[in-house]
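Session log. Operator J.P. requested a structure for one protein chain; no other inputs attached. Running the standard single-chain path with token output.
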Amino acid sequence: MVLSKHLNPDKLIQDAQDNKGPGVHIHSSTNHHAVHAYGARYGTQPIPKYRLPSKGVGAETAYQLIHDELSLDGTPALNLASFVHTWMPKEANQLMMENISKNLIDQDEYPMTQVLHTRCVSILADLWHAPSTHQAIGTATTGSSEAVQLGGLAMKRIWQEKRKASGKSIHEPGPNIVMGANAQVALEKFARYFDVEARLVPISEESHYRLDPRRAMECVDENTIGVYVILGSTYTGHYEPVKEMAALLDDYEKRTGHSVPIHVDAASGGFVAPFATPALEWDFRIPRVVSINASGHKFGLAYAGVGWAVWRAQEFLPKDLIFELHYLGSVEYSFSLNFSRPAHPIIAQYFNFVHLGREGYRNVALQDLKNARLLSRALEKSGFFTVLSDIHRPADKLATSLKNSVGFDEENVDNYVPGLPVVSFKFTDDFCKKYPDVQQKWVQVLLRAKGWIVPNYELAPDLQNVEILRVVVRENMSAVMVDRLVADILEVVDGLVKEDTPMRALAVLHGRKTVESHHGGLEKGSGSAYSGTYSRQC
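Structure written below.
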């Protein structure tokens, strides 16, 4: 029985209100008004929650009221569930505020903003090895979700044009797109919103929890508009093998004459792989890759609200998807799903390009991966967890034999399996056998009590019966925070083992412990025994 289903907090608060006298009937805790402690100080009447107030309040009052409500949100720095970046230098914040009122679509009114946008597209085309940065074409988007839609639409339109040119139907049996079952929901949204059959390839432990190219080929036919290949699975951080997928599609085209393009969803990896592992071939160096998307607000290190879609050449973005607009005294071109769009996220992205350069981005990526390896090893050494992500493992058997014999350079990122700085882990099989009553999801709940946001959820089909905990190591996740996180995880698990239930474990959680906790601190029993003298009533 769930107690909260039988007790209505609004009703409890209503019954606990000061009685205003007979005849007063309130149907919610506050008659659907927000009542704040500052009301008396500012002379503010209760503010309706779900309708516009008849009179407003002062700006200072409005700020304080809303500020206090938002304090109930989680702490962004401790939100280890999200890939979205949460910190930028104060100069970037200032630059964004100076330009927060600009609309990117008003190209004639804000020409320099549009120039910065074009520079960003060219920088990314060069970073991702487009054959010609002058021929590549791209656009800013709200994020990778929009960019993925645009990449899919372009592939669908090209497929339709080819079918029409050969006198074949575009409706029967209709288009399909192939992707791993681990695909982020935005990829499936494209299929559903734009009437394309989504062919999801099941994942397996052998495929490293990502797309298996050979199984993907079983789903490809003449109606396949393209294959989505993900550079950085959101589940485990694994890069999908773009080069292997392309080679199989090359062979398929030789045998059948059907050309199936690849769109790389590099939402996170697009800003990690070029800097951490530049020799890895996943981008426009592979001819079959026709378009790439990435999120500037993930490892592009900008705040939420900016993504990018880039095509290897204009021929891969059909002309009828580009709108020519005669608007506000100029001729403008648009091929995004949104029209109006804030300019400041694009300006923030360009700030990062100028501020960090290749060296800065590489330093951040390498440090993120180093901290992710630190966390991975600590979790495995605890004996409680199996780590599913591989970024802390040697890249091949040769590296393994080298480590066991003459030494292994643990600082060199090239010695490891390439991937995102993501750590996915679960209880070991031995732990589950020894403590069958301990549920892994309780770790998420108890960590939240300490401020950490670490999600626990199921893997994609065919491994949906496997639950994982996942940590995204972003720039603000320092080695000191890794230390604290590991200490808190171990304390939580130790409490669950001893107490059997999350509520009893919560009751025994004490202050945070770290590997430094014994430095300058007193051990238990160092003080005199409690006598009660300092809590006696007068």
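Operator note: The longest strand covers residues 224-230.
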